[in-house]
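Worked example 4.2. Below are the chains of a multi-component assembly; read each line carefully before continuing.
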Amino acid sequence: MKAYMVLLFAITLVLGITEILCGIDIVKINNFPSDIFGGFALVVISATFIRGTFAEEPVAYFYVGSLILLVFGVLYVLVLLANALDSVILGEEFDLLSNLRPEMPISLLAIPGVHSVLKKKETK
Amino acid sequence: MDFATELANARYELIGKIISSSVKKVSKPKSFSDLVDTVVLDKYLGIPIFLTLMWAAFQFSFSVSAPFSDAIDIFFGAAAEWAKASISNEILASLVGDGIFGGLGFVLVFLPPIAFVFVSLAILEDSGYLPRAAFIMDRVMSKVGLHGKSFIPMLLGFGCNVPAIMACRTIENDVDRKITIMVNPLMSCSARLPVYILFAGVFFSGYEGAAIVSMYLLGIVLAAIMATVIRRILFGGRISPFLMEMPDYTMPSLKLVLNSAWIRTQIFLKKAATILFVGALFMWFLTVFPWDATGGGEILDNSYASLVGHIMEPLIKPLGLNWKAGVALLSGFMAKEIVVGTLGILYGVESEEAIQSALSQDFNPITALVMMAITLIYLPCLATIGVLKRELGEWKLVSLVILYELVLAYAVAALIVVSGKVLGVV
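Applying the procedure described above to all two chains together yields the following structure tokens:
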């Protein structure tokens, strides 16, 4: 589990910092979100995973980090759907690429953690 | 240490003694709630996780609700056009089109974000996270004269002050709740944003972000100052100790979440049907009457709105603002979003580009900052005043909020003007 947490830490940290750097115009990547706050959220998730690897109860950090990651994945899917609906309502063209977020695919990596949460809740 | 804290400490001490003498401890794995609390109440991660979840709630409330707001806007816009085209009597057509449909559209366009804020709040409440959030923020908030539970309503104020003030009901202590309510209108709601964007775009090109963020920070600083002042002068006493039993985490129930959000949203809907609607009709009356003199609202210079603007002018002239700015600010009393639209009407322009060039003739960077700061501070909008009355329960306190905001707005605006002159900006 710790190795998996380190992997999640690395992925979320790199993506988070990149979003922040794009947000403050230091880096420019086509169709990559320029979002300081979104990047901050990813950095917090990464900090949760890495702190868990040194904690007495790493499983707690694995649960919470995975849950927050999944929350953001679902959130951005909802925002994408809302933007698509808004484009239809306003009669504007919907640009799918600019609405895609890296949080969407990487939230799938949270499934093992969220699955553990659900199992833990059931056996409580 | 005050009596309540001492009482709580003594109570927990006694509980500890009874437990240690009567309970035999066996090693047992931590519960799910205990495990989650290890992380969300963590010394270093607690606040960042809280901010992250709040930001997610914001995104959900304002981004996901946008198509519903646009749909309402389009529907009422079309209804207004239809009414104006179908009704032969000009005054009646203007009343139904601009007054009723226009007014209702302006009000109901806020319904989706408000409902979504309540859904977010209900999810956080129902999951059991909200008490933890209040616990995390207690230390920070108590330093500025506010209670730990004040943080969530203050944060919600960045979206809309109406649900934010209603969210103060989660604060049990009456004094803490009233102070939080009274400073909440200083949190820069999203309705003020169009004004910031407009003026920052024209006068702070290249630094728009910094100019807009400075308004948000100004609101936070003023709220902290006013909370301290109100507590010391009006209510006295100390912030009540923050004692809270943490409930177990639960999976939010969709039915409960929607039910809770609906009950809270209904309050806004009732207000929209009463106070806000009447306010919208009043503003319509001011801009189109006297009917013949204004040519049915075409010549605004002859309207009662213009009359009121010219009455206000001597008061705002020392701040570098003209009567048109006065009328725009007055219209913002109904809803802050109207300020930009009113400026468009008064300057006789419709496109954003045209209004920008028109503004640069009457404003400069300092008066633009003045306009932004006044929009932030000067008056709670009509909906906020309605909810202030409902939640504070007495007009005396509502009047006090209005009064301190007006004085504060004038003082801050004057300070900006003086600073501008001292620094030689204008």
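Take a moment to check your reading of the output against the notes. Residues 2-123 of chain A form one domain. Chain A has six helices and no strands.
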